[in-house]
Amino acid sequence: MTPDREEPPVHVPDGFLDVPTSIATGVVAAGVVAVSLRRAREELAESTAAAPMAGLVAAFVFAVQMLNFPVGVGTSGHLMGGALAAVLVGPWTAIICLAVVVTLQALLFADGGVSALGSNVFLIGIVTVVVGYAVARGLMAVLPKRPASAVPAAAVGALVSVPATALVFVGLYSVGGAAELDLSQLAVFMLSWHVLIGIGEAVITGLTVGAVVATRPDLVRLTRRYRTSLLLTDADGTSREVSAAPVTDGVKRIGVRWVAGALGVCLVLAGLVSSFASANPDGLEYVAERVGFIDTAEDSVVAGSPFGDYAVVGIDNPILATGLAGVLGVVIALGVGLLIARAVRPKAPGASARDTEKV
Amino acid sequence: MSDVSRHAQDLERPDAAPPGPTAALELRGVAFAYPDGHQALFGVDLIVRQGERVAVLGPNGAGKTTLLLHLNGILGQAAGSNAVGTVHVGGVEVSKATLGEVRRRVGLVFQDPDDQLFMPTVRDDVAFGPTNLGLRGAELEARVDEALDAVGMRALGDRPPHHLSFGQRRRVAVSTVLAMHCDVLVLDEPSSNLDPASRRELLDVLSALPVTVVVVTHDLPFALELCERSVVLDAGSVVHDAHTLEILQDPGLLARHRLELPVGFDPAAVVPRGRARPSPSIP
Amino acid sequence: MGAGHAHGASRSVSDGLYLPGDTPLHRLPAEVKLVGLLAFVITVVATSREQAWAFGVYGLLLLGLVALTRLRPGTVLRRMVIEVPFLVFAVLLPFVALGERVDVLGLQLSVDGLLGGFNILAKGTLGVLAAILLSATTTPRDLIVGLQRLRVPALFVTILSFMVRYLDVVVDDMRRMALARAARGFEARHLGHVPVVAKAAGALFIRSYERGERVHLAMVSRGFTGTMPQLSAPVPTSRQWALVSLAWMVVASVAVTAAVAGDRTAWLVMAG
Asked: What is the CATH number of domain A1-228?
C-alpha cells in the first residue's frame, strides 16, 4: 500500500469503444460537469473559494489514487476515490474534482485515450460519485444522526460504487465495444473482479473518512449538519447522552411551480411520446439476439404483471395502453421518490435555534 | 548583493501617502474570539506611524497571527467575526465597504510561501495583485518587473514555483505583495526556515524598502536588525511596547514571555539596518 | 544570486511528461495541438479495423513527429508502458470473443476477436503515442492557456490549474508521511496495515483542505473578487492553423481511402 508513481490507475484507451459511443458519453459527461460547476459553487460558503478548494481536493484525489492494495494473488487494485470525494466534499464538487483529475491524466500523463475522455469522465468521475453518494445518503437515513455514521455510510457507498461502475462499463462495451463478447460472461468477470476492488476501496474509504471525522468532523460534508451527542452529568454522577440539534442551514427549497412544470413534462413524455417510441429492440436486446443468448433469457418476473412489457393488459388500443402505462409509471415513481425524500429529511426539533454556520 | 538594495531604492512611489499625522495603522480596543469560543485577543491598542518598522514578538499562542489577519480585514468586524474594536489603515476604517482599498494598502505575506504562490509561473503570481487593481498591458509588465527586481528574482520569472528553492519562493511571495504598491507591509515569520544566506538577502530587501513594516517573528536578532521598535504580545494583550534594543536587554521581560536570545548573542553589538544604507556585508 | 535550485534529477509530478526543448512542436501553441490531437485520434478510431495498412501510415506519421521533436525512442517507449494492461485484454480477445472461428497455428481463434484485438492494439497505441507527443512538448501552463482559449468553462480550467500547481505539494506531503512511517520501521505489507495508511490519507485530506482555505485567503488579500486573470501566451498564427489542418487532411484522406477500400472488398466478397 505504498504510493507508487509508476503504475497509475489505467483508464479506457482509444479504440476500446467506437466513435458514436465515445461521442455520446462525451456529450453526457460534458453536460453533467457543466451542471456540477454551477452547483458546486453553492456547496461552498463563499463562492470565490470554489476554485482553490476544489483544486486542492482534486490534488488530494490524485494523490490517494496512487494508493494501491492487494487484490487476489499477485495483483493490486487502485483506489478510485469517487465515493470518498463525494462523502467529504459533496457530490457536485466531487464530480468536478474527479473530472479534472481524469482530464489531467489524459492530457498531461497520456493515461486514458483522448477519444475516450468522455467515457472515462463518465465512468470514474460521474458513475462512482453518483452511486457512492446515493448509497451513502440512503444509509444515512437509517443510521444514527451523528458524524461517526459517515464511516459505514461511506464504506458501503464505496463498496457498491466500484462494481456498479464496472457494470456500466459493460453496458458501454455492449453498445460500442471492440469485439463481440459473451456479455453475461464479461459481466460476471468484471463484477467479481471489481467486487474485490470494491472491498479494498470500501475499507480505505471508510477508514479515511473515520480519520477525518476524528479531527475535523465539520469537513465531512455528508454529516456536517450533525454533531456528536453531548454528555449531561447530574450532581449525583449519573450521566446520559443527548444528541445535539442538527444544524439547519439555508436549504434551498425547490419552488412548487418548478415541480409542477417538471411533473407536467414527465407526464407528457411518458403519456404521448412513449407510444410513438420504436418497437424495434433496444441496443442490448439487439446484441443479445445476434449473439444468441436472448432465447435463454427467461421472461422477466414482471412479464405477467399489469405493466409487463410496458403496456397495460386489458386495454386493447395499443397507443392508449402504452401511454397509460407511461403515466402510471411516472406517478408511481414520483410517489416512491417522495417517500424516500421524506425519510431522508432530518426531523426538525421543536424549538431549534437556527445556526448559521459558516464553513 | 548591493544591487538588490539599489533597485529597491529606485522604486518609484508616486502614489505613496506623504509623511503626515495620519497613522499608517491604528488599532483601538481590538478583541476577537474564534467560532469555537476561544478568545484570542483581549483589547489590543496599537499605533504604527508611517515609515516605522515594528516587530511583534511573543510566545506561541499569543495571538500574533490572529492580530495580523485583522490588519487587512480577513478577521474582525468587517468579516463578520465575533469581534469588537476598530482598525484604521491610513485613516480609512476597515469595514466591508472599504475592504478593496484596505487590501490595496496593506500587503500581507503569509508564513508559507506555497500558500501565496498559486499561479503557474512567478510572473503570473506577481501580476495577480496588480491585475486585480486594474493594471493591464505595458503598465502591468513594468510593475511586475519592478517588484521582481526589488527582490532580485527577475531572471526566474518564467519558472513555476515548484522549481524554486524555499528561500527563492519566500522572496517571490514578498514581491507579489510589493507589486501592489502597498503602504504597509505585514509579514508573518519571514525568516523561518531560511538558511543564513537567504535570511540575509531577505533582510537586505526589507531594509531597503521605504514602506511601513510590521513583522511577526521569533527571530529576535532579525527583529533587532530590521525594526527599531517592538511590541510584545502575550495571551492576547500588548504587554510591552518599546525600542527593540531595550526589550532585548531586559532578561526579566524576555523570560516572563518565553522569549530567548541565541546563545552568545549580544544585542548591543548589532548595527541595526537604517534606511537607504548599503548592506553591511563586505563587498 | 542565491542558490539557483535547478530541481536536480527528481522530476516533479506537476511537470507531467514535459521535456524541455525548442522544436517546432514545442513552439506550437497548445490550443492548436489540442485540436490537432483530438481530430487525429477521432479519425484513427473511426478508421475501419480491417484496413491494417492505414494504421501503418498513421504510425509512420507519428514517428515522423517524434523525430521532429527529437524525443529519444527510449523515453517514448518508457512512457508507453502505461498501456500494458489493455494490451493484455487485446491479446485475450481472440480467445474469448464470439463469432466464427479460424484456425491459427492449431488454435481456434475468433475472427472478430482477432480484428478487435488488433483494433485495440493499433488505435490504443497510436492514441498513447499522440498523447505523449502532446504532453512532452507542452508545459502545464501552456495547456491551461490552450484550454482557456478553446472556451472550456473558466471555473473548470481554474480548478485544473490549481490542481496542477498543488499536485507537487500534496504528493510531497504524502511521501513525507510515508517516509516518516518508514523511519519508524513501518512498511505497508499486508491488509492489517491499512488503518495506518488510511489515517495518513485522512490527515492529508485535512491538510489539503486547510491549505485550500489559506490559498483563498491569500487570493482575497491580493484583491481577488472572483475573476481569475487571463494568462498571456503566444497566439497561434493562421499559418500554424493551416499546417495542422493540412496534416489532419492527410490523415483524413487515409481514413476515407480505408473506408472506400473496405466497402470495395466487401462488394467483391459478396459478388464473388
From this structure: 1.10.1760.20
